[in-house]
Amino acid sequence: MTSDLNIVALVSIGQHPKSGRARRAEQDARAVELGMRLAGDNVQVLHAGDAAEETLRQYAGMGLKSLRVLQQSPQADAVVALGDYLAEHRADVVLTGVRAESGESSGMAPYLLAEKLGWPLVTRIADIVSIENGEAQILQALPRGQRRAIQVRLPFVASVDMAAQVARQSAFGPGRRAELESLPWVETPDSERAQFKEAPARKRPKRLKKVKATTAAERFKAATAKSQGTGGRIIKDQPPTEQAQAIFDLLLEEGVLR
Amino acid sequence: MSDLIRRDPRAEWIARNRLHPLHAAMTAPAGEVRGPSGLLRKNPHGVGFIGPNGIKRIDRSGGSNAAAGGRRGAAKSAQAVELPLHVVEAPDFYVVTVLDLVGGRLGSHDKDVLGQAHKLVNGLEGNGAVLAVVFGECKEEGFGLAGVDRLLHLEGSEYEGYSPEQRLAALVEVERRFTPRYWLFPDSINGGNELGCRLAARLGERPATQAWQVDTQQTLCRGAGGSSDITRATPRLLLLAEECAEPVDERRHEALAVELDSIAPSLVRIRDCGQVAVDPNAIPLAEAEFILSAGNGIRDWDQFHQAAELLGATEGASRVVVDDGFMPRPRQVGASGTWVTARVYLAVGISGAIQHMQGIGQCDKVVAINLDAGCDMVKRADLSVIGDSQAVLAHLIELAREYRHGAAENAA
Ligand SMILES: Cc1cc2nc3c(=O)[nH]c(=O)nc-3n(C[C@H](O)[C@H](O)[C@H](O)COP(=O)(O)OP(=O)(O)OC[C@H]3O[C@@H](n4cnc5c(N)ncnc54)[C@H](O)[C@@H]3O)c2cc1C
User: Fold this and answer.
1) C-alpha closest to that of B150 among B177, B172, B112, B187
2) Which domains does chain A have, with CATH numbers?
3) Which of B331, B350, B377, B392 has most ligand 1 atoms within 8 Å of CB, for mutation?
4) Staple partner for A141: which of A91, A125, A126, A183, CB 3.0–4.6 Å?
């Protein structure tokens, strides 16, 4: 594939869902992986935050020579810094994860960047099949394991789904040796975020099946009766052709035949 | 006719005897009476019946009905309960919900979002209306029951497939015309999350995502990939988690259609080239949309596999056939196998043991092919075909082949 493509992968600091330890974020690592498959080690990996963060070396350990960090304090709005950087430095493709694993994790970053840059945004991609003549063929991940083909002109922003190819392992030594290039950058404080109160997640109450019964007999019935379908259609004593036709019509109506 | 109550001893006797074969038919519940304002009216004199010794009896269990056997009871017939209609004439404000409508129908997530919308309307002064925006094909008829006061249905070739830019243009137009108090989206992978985020970016709102406890003041939403709770002031645009609120179930709503004037067609920068064929058996069983499941009633396994391939269905199986070695263990559906969420579940020769039914509890449409009309699978199924699986499958294969052939010819 053409290596004069300028691909930028945005990475964040992830968090292990069980231990809470910092790690490379799964989706961001997949974005880096996708970028490396498209442009070799010409892919530029960008992070807005603290260059002293050791976790960033886990991305570098995937085989990157360097990693660029826009120096920001934890209170700053990273999206503003990234947007300014991308507006100044020409990029063809910007890859991000769908949702961060730490912080507010609203998944708004790709949307805000695309809006700011005025580029199209393709969400939840599984793969970029090819980029030719300034046009990219993309596979988008849909629910239930389906895929959709999408065509979009460069430049664009894309968020990478968990359905994309798993990121390669990170090697410790090369990660150590990679250069973390720290750029001082203007900070915009995230004032709204400062008013949020954050606490460990409470367990959500399970929804109970409410029985709206007025009499004891009804409650008894609701508690003991087997759940029964609300009277489906039964086709009996008809030739199998018609029975098969009825099933086929239902499948067509539900749109599951493609 | 005089107002004298004429006793019918036989009917009274049947009404008392719950084991009588005619008991259920004779004691059909009387329809309820509503006054002109829609208020439920009860006639205290109509309660109960006269027992054999001339003493009035009131049975509150509902097992035997009031005035059965009497002249008045016979005239009334069973009637479906009609919920009171909630009317909003000239709404002061709108709460807009944008629904996913997976497969053209309201899902449970959509209903929860509508329930949340009404909670917000009730928490505010003035009478507000819940406006639902739906895109594309729609098969749903129960919008009124789910709590939709106004319905904006946008349809047309420009909204088909993946068309986020056009849909966003429509939502911006809704914002201009209705200036909604709140925007609510289901935070789902079926499009709700994407549209909500796009609109938030366009309007410059900071949405609350994965919100699960919302009132007009404060919102509790999940952050950090679901491992923390963020408490914040309720923003104007919310992406709601599943089960954020109870769905509406005590009122009917009008679901009046509204129209938007014209929406300028947006520049299409993202071209949808259609869905790509995926191998149905490569999709995880738990996620598959359409499952063809085999049970002990299958004799011809080549035919079954052929049917699954032609229909484009993911294969499933009951435990018996897995134990017998006809299907691999990962294909087993049920309590000790996989819990599936298919939209259409086609069960061929499966009796419907409880361990199997547990696994298909979340399926939308169940279709059964079985020899036994009394089995549990037929009771659960939306469409049951009573017949030999081999014959029905053979014809189904025929139909699928014709369909594929026709599609190929049309494409050529
Ligand atoms: C602890 C435990 C866990 C279990 N977990 C599971 C589980 O996870 N999943 C599971 O599936 N089972 C499970 N089972 C087994 C379950 O109880 C049933 O035995 C099993 O589901 C029955 O499978 P079946 O319906 O295919 O077979 P059967 O009960 O034998 O039913 C065959 C059906 O096919 C019909 N039939 C026969 N011939 C034809 C024909 N020619 N055309 C059309 N119809 C025909 C019959 O009328 C009958 O209804 C579990 C059992 C236990 C004890």
Assistant:
1) B177
2) 7-194 (3.40.50.620)
3) B350
4) A126
